[in-house]
Design a protein that fits this description.
The protein has 139 residues and is α+β, with helices and mostly antiparallel strands. The chain is 27% helix and 40% strand. It has three helices and nine strands; from the N terminus they run E-H-H-E-E-H-E-E-E-E-E-E. The strands form two sheets. A seven-stranded mixed beta sheet has the order 1-5-6-8-9-2-3. The radius of gyration is 14 Å and the shape is globular.
């Protein structure tokens, strides 16, 4: 289901959107550990520049390094669209489109900065966590 402005239809969709909001809040706070906590311990993460990061521990360190450096003071824009589907009851695929990194003082995204992100989430002991992430620029 595609949701403009992230309007959930089910409780699981609402939980996944909260997980995404938690991830965005961690980014805005510059908190690598909190960002990585939205992922499973063995997660696979592919950044927009093609960097491959494996595992929550490595992801926390890499993200914190970015937040302390070139990503300092940035935040993520809200997605233009969000699509969520459930191949099985405990697996969700979330595709967000029209997302960018916003620098301080910037209100909107430039077209060349927009990306589409694919996340796979797993329900583990009743809690949803992302286990894969792929970020690609929109052309």
């Amino acid at each position: 289901m595609t949701m403009p402005n992230s309007e959930p239809r089910t409780a699981d969709e609402a939980k996944l959107l909260r997980l995404l909001a938690t991830q965005s809040a961690a980014w805005a706070a510059g908190d690598g550990a909190a960002f990585a906590a939205t992922f499973t311990p063995d997660a696979d993460f592919v950044s927009v520049i093609g960097e491959f990061i494996r595992g929550r521990t490595e992801l926390a360190a890499v993200m914190q390094e970015g937040f302390d450096g070139f990503m300092q003071g940035t935040r993520l824009s809200d997605p233009e669209t969000t699509a969520i589907r459930f191949p099985t009851p405990d697996v969700a695929v979330m595709v967000t489109s029209g997302v960018c990194v916003l620098r301080s003082g910037r209100a909107g995204c430039r077209p060349e900065d927009l990306s589409v992100q694919t996340r796979v989430a797993l329900r583990c002991a009743g809690e949803w966590l992302f286990t894969t992430f792929q970020n690609t620029r929109i052309r």
